[in-house]
C-alpha cells in the first residue's frame, strides 16, 4: 500500500511526526503488509524557523517532494498547491492521501486527490469554530466533506460531523498533538536552553502567540491585543512574544509602537514546549497552543471570540478573551484562579497515531465515494 502525506505548515509537521513513527513500527511488525510512505511538503511555510528546523528537531525524513509554493493570497496559494500536488499524484499513483489540520495545504491536497478519485484521510477532522470568516474553518469543512477517512481527536468532533450528515469513515482516535508532546517533551527538556537564553524563571512570565488572519489582518484587533499584552507587562508580569513572520510584517506595516513586551523570533518546537510548560499563563489565538497549554495544565487565555477546542474551555483551563485590552488583562488576572472541572483528558491517551495507522493499514475498512 502506498500513501502520500501532504504537509506545509509547522503544526502539520508536529502532527506528522507521530504518524511516521507509527508507520515505521507497523512496517516492522507487519512485513507482509507494509505501508510505503511518500512525503510532500508544499512549502506553505518556508522560513527556517517555520519549517526546516522542525524537520531537524523531530528527526523527520526529508520530503520526497518540495513544491516550494511560498506565500501569497489564499487563492494563489491554494491554486499553486493544487496544481503541483496533482502532478505528484499522477506520477506516484497512491492508494491514499493523508492531509492534516486546516491550512490551505490541507484543502488543496484533499481537492487534488479527490478529483483523481484517490481516497483522502483527514487527520484532525470534525473541528468547528462556527465562524465562516476564518479561512481555516472553510478549509476544515470542505476537507471533511470530501474525505473518506475522518480521524477525530475528540467526541465533540465526531458529533460535529454527525450533525453535518457525515458518519461513514469516522474514527475517534484522539489527538496526535498529544502523542507528539509525550514523544518529544523529554527531548525538549534535555536539549532546550530557551529559559536560560531569555533569562526567565519558571512560572514567572506570560507567553503570547498571535498569527491568525482574523487578528493580524485587522489592525484594530491586532492593536487591541498588543495593548492588552502591554498592560499585562506594566502590571508586573513579563510577556514573552515569539512573533510569527506574518504578524511581525503587520506590526511594521501598521506602525505600531510596542513597549514592555519581549519580542523574539519564532522559536522551534522543542523551545516552544519548554516555554509553554513553564509559563504562568499562555495567551494565544493558536488552536495547537491552546491544547498544549491544556496538556501542561497551564491556564490559557484565547485571543479570539470562539474556539474549535471547546473541551479546553469546558474543562476550566481556557478563557475566551477576544481582542479588547481590558478583557484580556482581566482574563489574565483571573487565570490564577482557573481550576479544572475534572481531571481528565478528552484528547486520548497518546496512542492516536497507532490507531490511525491501524485503520489505514486495512484497506477493506475504507469508506470511499
Automatic annotation (TrEMBL):
Q: Does the keyword Isomerase apply?
A: yes
What is the protein's species of origin? candidate division WOR-3 bacterium
What GO MF terms are annotated? UDP-N-acetylglucosamine 2-epimerase activity
Q: What is its EC number?
A: 5.1.3.14
Q: Where is the UDP-N-acetylglucosamine 2-epimerase domain?
A: 32-360
Q: Which domain of life is it from?
A: Bacteria
Q: Top-level EC class, please? A: isomerase
Q: Which UniProt keywords apply?
A: Isomerase
- Name of protein: UDP-N-acetylglucosamine 2-epimerase (Non-hydrolyzing)
Belongs to which family? Belongs to the UDP-N-acetylglucosamine 2-epimerase family.
Q: Does the keyword Iron-sulfur apply?
A: no
